[in-house]
Hints:
Strand 3 (74-76) and strand 4 form a beta hairpin. By secondary structure, this protein is α+β, with helices and mostly antiparallel strands. The protein has a domain at 58-88. Helices cover 34% and strands 12% of the residues. The protein has helices spanning 2-29, 84-88, and strands at residues 58-60, 67-69, 74-76, 79-81. A two-stranded antiparallel ribbon has the order 1-2. Strands 3-4 form a two-stranded antiparallel sheet.
Amino acid sequence: MTRLLFWIALIILVVMAVRSKLRAAVAARGFGPDAGQGGTPAGGATRAPPRVEESERMTSCAHCGIYFPASEAVHEGGQDYCSQAHARLPASSRPD
């Protein structure tokens, strides 16, 4: 019976230690309940909001119809193509 209590106590201590380490890691990043009031990081320092990348306009290939970023388009004859090989082929007659 003593062995069982020992192992239970040991498991509880290990779980508590792991949880403590995880909470410290989250607080170090500046998030979580230990971070301070109003979602500010610990220590009261203000942090700039994360930068949001602007999404790029997508276009579709006139031959195969796949969508890809417009910055990667090959422009030929007023149409957008996904590659030089498709720019040499005729445009598809598929209804869009």
